[in-house]
């Protein structure tokens, strides 16, 4: 399985992600659709970050005087009301950083400022206006779907923070053309790399505070926290008091990446580094990307586990729980004999379900058994095989019989279990006089061969 792995120890911002993808082998020409539709260009250069050669991507205006897209000439300095982490504009709030300490400098990498950076330029847009713009860009179907999903993540986070709904969300800087260039550009480069899986180690948020239009907020910012709640990966503080994870970067990673505590086993084919805007004295301000072949895996499935203890429920009711709880969303039901208080025999009923189904299933469990309480355990996910069903035709004494066979495999397609469905095998056994075991073995053998 072709895997793209990110090392998140210096956070994630849109410009760093673009640089990392290009350095890891994505084609610069893949960005052309954005440059064709917006008055921007991607300026790509190689810079040094503490001895690491990294790709630096800056989004520049191609027509600073154009007002058709809301552009206007605009000078930059470190006290600008919408300066941002890693030199990539990210917030839907204006904010300033804590000021320049001696531990880092803003590095424009030789830019003579003849070109205007696109940070925050262009109109601020509503969520609906951003969707319309992306829809009209003529992007490949999968690229468009990914970009829209990322903007939906951003919009839902902003709506949650501000107590509004998605349609009423108004993007400020993240609706400007440079942020659109970051998100759509990342989708185009990911499509060009053509990987099967994306993972990231924990993303370092940095620390300290940022000044935003609503006041002073701790890092990570509210939007980043909202996005992280919906993401598979985890956050960690440090290693410096700066904002290292931006909402734009978080939204991209929330859509594309699974979390992992450390880099997975990987036969590395290519690797590269994307540079952030700060040139730090003691550590490289880069996002590292590695591309290569990784081992197949089981699929991670978000679940919760409900449990209750009962000692006065009839066997008939217990036996029917498999059906009644499955009707309201249970994925699996187990009933385990146990000994309860005063040495009374009883049972523990365990139910695996999706978190969103838990309340409904708990009520049905209480109604069916009369239990006075249902507890939810701390399980957050399970690892499951991909399952496919094949129908085989068995020939017995010249007559054809169909049997369904379940095939379990990892994400690489490596099969590790083949199991004929009992009900089908039992029906064929009744008609042919053969044993259920014989029917199952024949059907499974046909699939394996």
TrEMBL record:
InterPro entries: Ni_insertion
Annotated segments matching region Disordered: 68-125
Keywords recorded for this protein, A-Z: Lyase, Nickel
Domain of life: Archaea
Database matches in Gene3D superfamilies: mk0293 like domain (3.10.20.300), Transcriptional regulatory protein pf0864 domain like (3.30.70.1380)
Signal peptide as annotated in the record: none
Keyword Secreted listed: no
GO molecular function, one term: lyase activity
Statement: the UniProt record of this protein carries the keyword Lyase: yes
Pfam families: Ni_insertion
Annotated HAMAP family: LarC
Entry similarity comment: Belongs to the LarC family.
Annotated protein name in UniProt: Putative nickel insertion protein
Organism name: Haloarcula terrestris
Name of the encoding gene: larC
């Amino acid at each position: 399985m072709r895997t793209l792995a990110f090392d998140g120890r210096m956070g994630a911002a849109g410009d760093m992600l673009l640089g990392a993808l290009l350095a890891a082998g994505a084609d610069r020409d893949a960005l052309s659709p954005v440059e064709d539709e917006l008055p921007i260009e991607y300026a790509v250069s190689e810079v040094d970050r503490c001895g690491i050669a990294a790709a630096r991507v800056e989004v520049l205006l191609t027509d600073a005087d154009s007002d058709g897209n809301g552009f206007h000439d605009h000078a930059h300095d470190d006290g600008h009301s919408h300066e941002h982490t890693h030199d990539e504009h990210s917030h839907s709030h204006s904010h300033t950083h804590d000021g320049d300490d001696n531990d880092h400098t803003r590095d424009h990498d030789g830019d003579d400022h003849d070109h205007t950076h696109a940070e925050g330029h262009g109109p601020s847009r509503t969520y609906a206006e951003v969707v319309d713009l992306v829809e009209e860009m003529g992007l490949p179907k999968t690229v468009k779907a990914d970009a829209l999903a990322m903007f939906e993540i951003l919009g839902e986070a902003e709506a949650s923070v501000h107590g509004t709904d998605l349609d009423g969300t108004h993007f400020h800087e993240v609706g400007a053309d440079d942020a659109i260039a970051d998100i759509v550009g990342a989708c185009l480069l990911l499509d060009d790399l053509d990987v099967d899986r994306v993972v990231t180690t924990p993303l370092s948020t940095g620390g300290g505070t940022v000044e935003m239009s609503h006041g002073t907020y701790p890092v990570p910012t509210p939007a980043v926290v909202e996005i992280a709640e919906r993401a598979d990966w985890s956050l960690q503080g440090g290693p410096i008091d700066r904002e290292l994870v931006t909402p734009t970067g978080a939204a991209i990673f929330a859509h594309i990446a699974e979390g992992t505590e450390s880099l997975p086993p990987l036969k590395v084919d290519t690797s590269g580094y994307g540079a952030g805007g700060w040139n730090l004295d003691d550590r490289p301000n880069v996002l590292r990307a590695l591309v290569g072949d990784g081992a197949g895996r089981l699929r991670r499935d978000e679940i919760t586990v409900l449990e209750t203890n009962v000692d006065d429920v009839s066997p008939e009711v217990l036996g029917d729980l498999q059906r009644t709880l499955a009707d309201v969303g249970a994925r699996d039901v187990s009933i385990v004999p146990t000994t309860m208080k005063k040495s009374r025999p009883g049972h523990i009923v365990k139910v695996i379900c999706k978190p969103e189904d838990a309340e409904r299933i708990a009520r049905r469990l209480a109604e069916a058994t009369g239990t006075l309480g249902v507890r939810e355990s701390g399980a957050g996910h399970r690892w499951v095989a991909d399952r496919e069903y094949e129908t085989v035709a068995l020939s017995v004494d010249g007559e054809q019989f169909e049997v369904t066979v379940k095939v379990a495999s990892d994400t690489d397609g490596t099969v590790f279990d083949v199991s004929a469905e009992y009900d089908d095998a039992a029906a064929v056994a009744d008609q042919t006089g053969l044993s259920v075991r014989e029917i199952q073995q024949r059907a499974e053998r046909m699939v394996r061969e």
